[in-house]
Amino acid sequence: MRIGVMGGSFDPIHLGHLVAASEAAHRFSLDRVVFSPTGESYHKATDTRAPAEVRYLMTVVATAADPRFHVTRVDIDRPGPTYTADTLKDLQAEFAEESPGAPAEWFFITGADALADILGWRDPEQILDSAHLVGVTRPGHALADPGLPADRVSLIEVPALAISSTDIRQRVARGAPITYLVPSGVAHLIGKHDLYRSS
Fold first, then answer.
1. How far apart are CA 161 and CA 177, in angstroms?
2. Percent of the chain whose pLDDT exceeds 70
3. In whole angstroms, what is the distance from residue 18 CA to residue 35 CA?
4. Who's near 116: CB < 8 A, 6+ residues apart?
């Protein structure tokens, strides 16, 4: 079993996230991609606008059409800040419990910009031991060498990553359309919960 894990605030989840997950699944022959919305992100604590439960629901709605995609609550349900090392440890323990003795190869999918900072994350050695790191980036975007072992890190270009959650929040705040940037179910939830509007 080859399992990808995509962590993020998903505030909101958008088509760029889904294309990145699909591209990583294709490139690395992943059987499953697990989306893990952050609970309380230790490095983005002030940048989350939607409540955790709504972000989780948006992620479930956005990924429902692809049988390779799954959504976990491990980071939503764990108290305190979300750390990648804990996410991987918890998901690997869950998998070992569900499929005792089954071998699994793990891949952690994140933005290339975040990957460049990974040595500053908590327990970077544990992360590198737990999963192969996949950095997704926009075409033509250069990644500064973060000093990570080449055999544990891969970069892939994903054109749809020009879409950003920050831009979507700003568009909603000024009343601009987000059609074709997020799945229609996510757009519906943003409207239903009156998210990202200017006060």
1. 18
2. 92
3. 10
4. 143, 144, 146
